[in-house]
Every structure is written in structure tokens, then in C-alpha cells.
Amino acid sequence: MKIKTNGIELHCIIEGEGPWVTMSHSLACNSSMWDVQAKLLVGQGYKVLRFDTRGHGASDAPEGAYTLEQMADDLHGLYAALGIRRSHWVGLSMGGMIGETYALKYPGVFQSMVLADTTSRRPPNAEQMWGDRVKLAREKGMDALVEGTLARWFTDPYRAANPAVMAKIGGDIRNTPVAGFAGCCDAIAKIDVLDRLKEIDCPSLVIVGDQDHGTPPEMARQIHANLRGSELLIIPSAAHLSNVEQPQAFNDALLGFLRKVA
Fold first, then answer.
1. With 90 as the cut, is the pLDDT of residue 125 above it?
2. Which residues on adjacent β-strands are paired with residue 21?
3. Which of 140, 165, 198, 242 is a good FRET partner for 158, with 20 to 30 A between their CA atoms?
């Protein structure tokens, strides 16, 4: 379904019955990256909301720079339209950044947070790095980003053993609107909330793949150190999309955490 929020339409999927769990995807993916986890949660008695972030999937992709605060407002409007007052949050990479920003802007809505393979402070070269990728996308199309992105997102052994997954995720990258990719790159290149994480007051689980070079374990440790009472899990043999590369470890941690905080 599509819901109008904050001046755009967001595509979302709602499945199951029970406590709300909202799932937010990474840059250049869409809500389908959570297919395995959503099915699991629905089977365990949760009501799962997945949505395509602005600029991605079947949601609107307006031209121009986006901000994380704007994407938090998109979510807030989505919650208002659906009558959601409380929800658990599961966000990976950009989805984690949106979750951190939302929790700071709208305290008390999240019952808990799972922040996977994400960051809360931009690296010194962020604007140039993301700017170069946007330039490549604008000049040559998203196809030019596929191979390099897959190499960062997955370990070499996993890529070699799972061509069907590579084709699916590669297609998601390829089909991301350039305007949406560029707008979100501008947003995530500016994130700087690490020192404010102490203000967040809800149970949190921080997950990271041990071979995630984009948002490395050291950043996960910093997030964990600044989130009061949080837990940290480093998943072996996983790079950036740890929920896809090591679904069993990710799913066990996710379910165990949700049961603990229920």
C-alpha cells in the first residue's frame, strides 16, 4: 500500500498481528531485504511494518538533497496515518541512522531498537566519498555501482557461493532511482549523533558483521558505549548486510532480544 506522509507517498507492507515491529532497509535496497526476518517475526506473533525509504523501491523519489531529520518525519507521518503509537525498531545501515535520528527527535515511541551495521558519526572523508558515488551514478547510472557495492556488502566466499542472492540484491541496487540514491547519500554523509545517543532511553541491540568495512565493528562498539544498557553482537563471517549473509545468527539474536524486552 502507499501512504502519503510529509509531502510524498511511501510504499509499505504490513503483515501479521501482535506488537508492532518496524523494519528499515539500507541505502540502495528496499523493504524486500527483510523478507526472511519479516516472515520469521510474523510467525512469532508480531505485526511487521516494512517501508521503502524515500527515494527507494516503490516510494516517491523527489529530486534534491534529503536529510535524516526529514526521513524521521516521513516515518512519523507514516506512524500517524497507521495509528501506531509504539513500535520496536529494526534498522540496518541507513535504516539504523534513521532510527537513531527518530529516537532523538521523537522520544518514547520506540519500545526497543535493533541497530545493525550502521554508524552514528560520519568519517572525515564522508562528503567526498558519497559525492564520488553520486557523481558516478549521475554520469553512468546505478549499474556502475553494482559490483563495487556488492563487494563491500558481502564477503568473497558468500558472493561466490550465492549467485542468486547477488543477482537479486544487484537488481535492487540497479533499480534504485538515481535521485533517491543521491538524496539519501547527502543525508547519511552528514550524520553526527554519536554524542547524543546517551539521550535515548530504550533497550537496544547493536549488531555488526565482523568483516563490515563500511560501518566497522569499532563504530558498533562506540554506539554500544554511548547507548545506555545496550547489548552488542559481532557476527562472524559477515560483511555489511549481516541479516542476509548470516540469517541464522541475525535471526536468533533478533528474536532473543525482542523476547527479552517484550
1. no
2. 48, 88
3. 140
pLDDT tens figures, 145-174: 999 999 999 999 999 999 999 999 999 999
pLDDT of residue 129: 87
Mean pLDDT across 65-94: 98
pLDDT tens profile 82-113: 999 999 999 999 999 999 999 999 999 999 99
Average pLDDT, the chain: 97
Q: 20-24 and 87-92 as β-strands: parallel, antiparallel, unpaired?
A: parallel
Beta bridge partners of 10: 3
3-state secondary structure the chain: CEEEECCEEEEEEEECCCCEEEEECCCCCCHHHHHHHHHHHHHCCCEEEEECCCCCCCCCCCCCCCCHHHHHHHHHHHHHHHCCCCEEEEEECHHHHHHHHHHHHCCCCEEEEEEECCCCECCCCHHHHHHHHHHHHHHHCHHHHHHHHHHHHCCHHHHHHCHHHHHHHHHHHHCCCHHHHHHHHHHHCCCECHHHHHHCCCCEEEEEECCCCCCCHHHHHHHHHHCCCCEEEEECCCCCCHHHHCHHHHHHHHHHHHHHHC
Measured between its terminal Cα atoms, the distance across the chain in Å is 28
User: Rounded to 5 degrees, what angle do the CA atoms 46, 72, 124 make?
Assistant: 115
What's the whole-model pTM score? 0.97
**In this model, does residue 127 exceed pLDDT 90?**
no
Give residue limits of the domains in the chain: 2-261
Please state which of the four CATH numbers 2.130.10.10, 3.10.560.10, 3.40.50.1820, 3.30.70.1560 is assigned to the domain occupying 2-261. 3.40.50.1820
Looking at the chain, how many residues does it have?
A: 262
